[in-house]
Amino acid sequence: MSLTRRTRGEDGFTLIELLVVVVILGILIAIAIPTYLNYRKSAADKTAQSDLRNAITTVESCAVDGTYPTAINSSGVITGCAGQRVQLSTNTSISYTSAGSPVTSFQITSTNSGGSKVYCYDSLDGGSVKEVSGSLTTATC
User: Fold this and answer.
1) 72 occurs within a structural domain
2) By the number of CB atoms within 10 A of the CB, which of 27, 53, 98, 112 ranks highest?
3) 102 exposed, middle or buried (CB, 10 Å; 0-12, 13-18, 19+)?
4) CATH number for the domain including 117?
5) Helix (H) or strand (E) run with residue 118 in it
6) What 8-state DSSP symbol labels residue 85?
7) Is residue 40 in a domain?
8) What is the count of structural domains for the chain?
9) Is residue 6 assigned to a domain?
10) Coil/strand/helix, residue 92
11) How many Cα atoms occupy the beta-carbon half-sphere of 109 within 13 Å?
12) Nearest-CA neighbor of 74 among 58, 95, 50, 91?
């Protein structure tokens, strides 16, 4: 009996029905992927901002111990402050510039390669982290 029902036109989905489902899935994917990529970019930017704040805390703790560091390299090793190191997240880069002899002020900029923003902190500016234009090497506070 079930064999005769199949031969009467209930073979499954038609090609048109399958194409409609594929088109609907394509539209949903076309909407979802850019949104997802924007979330990832935003998360990378927040990571760079967070790493900058952590670097500021580390540098300020060096000042409590004596003086500001003279340099911080790209891997987070601090020159002029024994026992301290800046911990950076994956794909985050920072640039440290000191001023004075002995060092009395500094600027730190950070960015994450997965993001699109550059953040800057100037110790003479009152302690605010701000978004700046340019690249890591050309950005100024």
Assistant:
1) yes
2) 112
3) exposed
4) 3.30.700
5) strand 118-122
6) B
7) yes
8) 1
9) no
10) strand
11) 16
12) 95
Token couple for 66: 């004596």
Q: Can you tell me the distance from the alpha carbon of 59 to that of 52, in angstroms, rounded to the nearest whole number?
A: 10
| Cβ neighbours, 10 Å, residue 42 | 14
Question: Cβ of 118: how many Cβ atoms within 10 Å?
Answer: 24
The residues facing 121 across adjacent strands are: 108, 129
* Structure-token match 């594929």, residue found: 22
List, for residues 98-136, the tens digit of each pLDDT value: 888 888 889 999 999 999 999 999 998 877 899 998 888
pLDDT tens digits for range 44-71: 999 999 999 999 999 999 888 788 899 9
Tell how strand 92-99 and strand 105-112 pair up. Answer: antiparallel
CA-derived radius of gyration, the chain: 27
Asked if residue 48 belongs to a domain, the reply is yes
